[in-house]
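Two quick folds needed for the group meeting slides. Do the first one here.
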Amino acid sequence: SLPDVVGAHAGKPLELVVRRGEQTVTLQPVPKGEPGEARLGVKFEPRAVGEATNYGLGQAVAEANRSVASLTVQILKDVSGLLKRVIEPKESALEQLRGPVEMVGQLKSAANRSIKDFLVLFAALSLMLGLFNLFPIPPLDGSKLVFLGAETVARRAIPARAQIYIHGVGMMFMLGLMLVVSVKDVLRKDPQPEPVP
C-alpha cells in the first residue's frame, strides 16, 4: 500500500509521478519520521475514477463481502501495528488514535465530496467500531465473551462484585481515553505539506 511504500523511504527521496490536468510531473519528496512510520505530510483522499460499475444482486453481494473482508484485514493490520508501537514505542501510540471529533470531521469531508464517499466511510467506521467492540477490554462485549469463556472452563460463575469492579475500572479507563483523544483531535493540526515546485 502507499503508506507502506512511504514509510519504507524514511529520509530518502521518493519518486512520485503526479498528473496535473494534461501534464505529468515527477516529484521527489523526502518522507520524514522513523523507518516504517515516515510520512509525507500530504493528505490523500479518494476520488472516483472512470464510470461506476453496475452489479447484479448476486455480484453486488459478492463484491460487498469481498470489500468487507479486505477492509477487515486492513483494520486488523493497522491495529497490530498500533499494538506494536505500544510494545516497542518509537512514537507515542496515542498520537495515532483518532476520536469522535476526528470521525465527524472525516464524515463531513466525505459528505462534501459525494454521497458515495460518505456511505463508504460510514460503513468503514461502523466495521471498525464493531471490531473494536470485540476487544477483550472491559466494558466492551469482547470482555464479556472472555468472562463467559472463563466461567465455562471453571464451571462456576464469576462473583458479581468482581465483575462490577472490573467493568467499572474499564469504563473509567475508556472514558478517560476518549476524553484525552477528543481533546487531542480538537488541538491537532494536520501537518502542512512542503511546497511543491
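Then this one, please, same format:
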Amino acid sequence: MRRNVVATVFVQDHWLNIAQKCPSPNVNQRPGEEISLLVVHNISLPPKQYGGPYVEDFFCNRLDPKAHPYFAEISSIEVSSHLFIRRDGSVIQFVPFNQRAWHAGLSQYGGRDNCNDFSIGIEMEGCDDEAYSDEQYEALKQATLAIMLAYPEITTSRITGHEFISPRRKTDPGRAFNWARLFSGLKC
C-alpha cells in the first residue's frame, strides 16, 4: 500500500528533488528493463574516512591518484551510483533514475543477471562495521519512499544490499547496516 499524502521528497523527471545534482559520465541507457530493484551500498574514500570531495571525484572520473595511496589503485575504475547519502544526510545524485548507473557490477537477483539493468543504486557514506548516522537513515527512508512511489515495481521485498546480489565479491552495506530500521520506516 502506498501513502496518499503530499510528499516533500519526490522524484521529478527521474531526479530526486532534494538531491544536489553532480552528473557522472559513467552512465548509459537501460536495455528496456523496468526499474524494479533498489540496491543499498556503502562507500568511503579513503576507506573509513568521511567528508571531503573524493566520492564525487571518483564517480565523476576526477579522482587524483596522488591524493592518497589507495586512490592509485582505483582512480582508473569507472563506476557510478544514482544516489550518495552523506553522514549528515545530504544527498547527491549522479545519474537520473531512468538511466543505468554502474554500481552493481557482476550481480544477480531473483535469477536475473546484471542488476544495473533494472536497479537503482544508493551509496551510504560509511563502511561495513561502523554505524550509520540517524540523518542517513532518515534521508534513505525519504529517498526510498519517493523512489517507491515513482517506480512502483520497487516494493519492500525488492530492496537489497550489494552483499546479497554479489555475495562472493561484496560485503556492503555490511553488518553495521540496520535493515530493520530501514524497513520499519517504510511501513505505510
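Slide caption for protein two: The radius of gyration is 15 Å.
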